[in-house]
Amino acid sequence: MVSIDRARLKSLMEREQQRFVQERPKSNALFERARKSLLGGVPMNWMAKWAGAFPPFVREAQGAEFFDVDGHRYIDFCLGDTGAMTGHSPSGTVSAIEQQIRRGITLMLPSEDAILVGEELQKRFALPYWQFALTATDANRFAIRLARQITDRPKILVFNWCYHGTVDETFITLTDGVAKARRGNIGPPVDPAITTRVVEFNDLDALEQALQAEDVACVLMEPALTNVGIVLPEPGYHQALREITRKYGTLLIIDETHTICAGPGGYTRAENLDPDFLVFGKPIAGGVPGATYGFTEEVAQCIVARQNLEDCDTGGVGGTLAGNALSLAAMRATLQKVLTKDAFDRMIPMAERWSAGVAKAIADFGLPWNVTRLGCRAEYLFSPTTPKNGTQAHDAMDFDLERFMHLYAMNRGILLTPFHNMALMSPVTSKEDIDQHTKVFRDAVKELVA
Ligand SMILES: Cc1ncc(COP(=O)(O)O)c(C=O)c1O
Predict the structure, then answer these.
(1) What pTM was computed for the model?
(2) What's the Cα-to-Cα distance from 395 to each of 235, 382, 398, rounded to whole Å?
(3) Atom 14, ligand 1: which residue's CA is nearest?
(4) Nearest residue CA, atom 3 of ligand 1?
(5) Residues 75-100 pLDDT 10s
């Protein structure tokens, strides 16, 4: 198999950086101006991670494409890292937003939309009760708090190299089998090794051992890891995991924020999983901030039994703007009109086409890489085999190579997520978009191995 010549990679990267800067004078000027008022020239720290010398500044986005201020068109496979999986500004959501925005944005009172969304979520995910937050991070935090309250247990369990948003307890990884704060964890309030157990995905023995002491309130998991490349569960894994969590009285929170790519009811409905809580954020409101968490009848009864009306606004589950009228109108329209079964029926074959194109190029050029797909999300990884757990997936990451692939694509009008090599399909992503990616991917690897 072919290996990557690092000197060649470096010189190709330099060439691509020059091209990126030369072709984007307006973004460059905006970035220079931004550096005077925004830390690092960006509104959010991770926006510094884009592979170019500066991020392209966006003029407008629509559907599966956007234009930068220099007039370049990009096919968007990043889609706001799932926040815009609906396609940018989908018309169904936009008309609901336009109507609601003139009738009140945030009230601290419910609107009928809240019920319509709750009813729609019931149908999709087969859980009876729903609450809202503004971000998936918050939805996860609230579910964890409730799980701790219900079980009266202090710890949570997550999987190695998971990501669930900026939830303090989840920034923990295994280093030579020892649980330690994740590299880059900024100012942790307490050492996550105190709050959290961490085990490898697909390792049932490790899970059982970690839960045996009966001090773990909940397992928080993505049903397939999506934030370290894609790691799929082995056959029978979820069923056994559920039996083990029940055996030790640990609640199960399934975070479907990314795995919603598996279908309209996420991986949970596609594979008939049976969680105690389910979290779903990012694209639920078509890009307007909004997230939700649902739970079983049994959990609902436990919450109600412990509820204290006088303190319910300061109990740690909250958010002034959570459940606001605008988010709920956007959620109602997105669920009813945009992220429909028909949309998934179009999106999933697009991801199959993307994966087939990438897999063929990998095979044709003899690269030790592979491609994995989950519903309408696909991803290539710099390893010859598909990873079984977070460690294997993380070990296959190659920051320099990843940045080259991203920058090469960006210079040719294709945007991948800045974090790894993920491509997501929107309901309006076309075959032509996919074929253009395949061509650019082939050209990139051809230059790499030449
Ligand atoms: C699986 C998962 N859950 C939750 C989150 C947090 O979402 P947000 O940053 O919108 O709070 C992320 C973010 O990437 C995620 O990947």
Answers:
(1) 0.98
(2) 23, 9, 8
(3) 165
(4) 164
(5) 999 999 999 999 999 999 999 999 99
